[in-house]
Please model this.
Amino acid sequence: MGCAPSRKKGALTEQNRDADSQAPLVQHINTHLKLRATLMIQQWFRRWRAELEVRRRATWTIFQTMEYASENEQLQLYNFFNDIITGLPDAFNALHATKSDSALTKEDRFYSKLTNPDFVNIESDYNGPSFELPVTLHQVQDLIKAFQDQQVIHAKYLLIILGEARRIFKLQENIQHMSTGTASNITIVGDIHGTLDNLLAIFFKNGMPSPTNPYIINGDFVDRGNTSTEVAAILLSLKILYPNSVYINRGNHEDVIMNKRYGFITELVGKYGTTANRVAKAFEGVFRAIPLLSIVDNSIMVCHGGISDITDLKYINKIDREKYVSILRPPKRENTQDVDLVEWRQMLDLLWSDPKTANGCEPNLFRGGGTYFGPDISKTILGKHNINILIRSHECKPDGFETMHDGRVVTVFSASNYYDEGSNLGAYVKVGKKNKLQFVQYNATEKMKNLPLNTRVSRIESSALRDLRSTIFANKVNLMNAFAKLDPHGDGHITKAEWSSCMREVLKLDLPWLTLRNKLVETDTKTGHILYETCFESGELKAQISNQQITEDIYRQRNVLETIFRILDTDNSGFITPEELRAGCELLAKHNNSVGLSEEELDQLIATMDIDGNGEINFNEFLESFRLVDTKFGSAAIPSGPSTASLKEGQ
Model:
């Protein structure tokens, strides 16, 4: 009653036997499914990582191509700079030609007076860091703490540092020699580019420089970043404290012309106002005195850029490096208009060159200066001088360092987050005995570390694309003209190949345009053609241009105009005086063999540009004057290229 029927013992045994016999098959199927699932996940993950890597590399290419295009433009402007600087009434020019011993003595007197702190008074409300000789480690540590608290060192104390640093640099030869015999390692730091957080990150990880912890700073410690003054003050103070343990090589940005273009002069004007000119010229004297390269253990060469097929270290060591106020502007021989092109080439190649994977040596057209040197050149030139390894900087690398040419050439770049936050790691290299190299990587910003890889790549990609869209928008007229030639019926679309070719030819940027097209422009779903007008539809950029109230041509040439403004502003006051503008206009007229403007026309020009009527022209007024010309006469009023003649026409 209420009981289930009992099962037969034989039937139960047979059922268990069947289950036991099927168990291996089920297990096999489950294992197979797990394996397939694992393989599918691995394939998906590899594909996902590969896609991220493609995006990362494309982003990196955008950043680097645009950076080098800017430097190329800088060198194309060289002739214009040369005309302006040569003629302006400035102590810069009096010290520029090749000098006799008496002239050098005069130059030393000039810089000694320039850096004399007695000519600068300290305001009663100043409460920043102080500095006096002889320097102590405690003073340097106080400087660092003050800079971390965002204090600005007074010009009086900064001039003391600059004067003493120049004196020490002048005692050293062009080629400095170091040895690991007295220290287990020598630390080599690449480009810092005015970023205090990167310098302090290195000191935190590696320790402060000292006789037992020597450093080589391989150039480019100023420009681009907004704390170049602080970085320079710390490094030069350490050089004064430990002259035989802190070695500094000149980079291509320890250069007065580069400083006018890439931010250092602007920073000095903002921090020191009426004293900025004295400070800027004192820095110029220091940069000219910095040695050119270092050699460790007679077997490792350390220089900022690289070498070429004519590099000769014996020749380089005999060059009067102080003649080179700017590496972009070779000095003329005394009492002549001749330039020693062989000597200039040695200097230019040392500070501007880059390695390449293919053999040979050719002009570095990508940057516009120096050379591209291949593995055969490294082997020959380094072998000629019994050098095993060349350690250089000058190029940002995703991982902070890179080895090439069968390990003979090493690039080290120390400015992490160079293009944008998370764009790259910084690195330094420790040289030990027997040429042993140890690379140390870091990121001065911790915020990006905990973000997922996809998020990091997306953020950096967005930044690169934003910069690229700015360039595209700034060249809208030229691009539209090029597109129109390929679209005679005005349908608004062209082929992908035609669009890619136009972008490359008009913008002069060798980028993977076909890969980038989905990020920049829309495609017709029916024909697959490019709807080229859509690449100008970024609302963000339209708002940016509108807010600045400048036309497209001015937007495109803004960097060029800012550089011209800084050069005309010979006293680095942040303003162009009527006298400075007159001198510039007269020089342009003389260069172009034209009559130029009459006194009345010059007065009218000055009055027109001086919008607020205070007797000085600031950068906004300077830019506004070009905008007014552009609005009145059309886009032809603003030059599309950097030649002196076209710049004059733009005026």
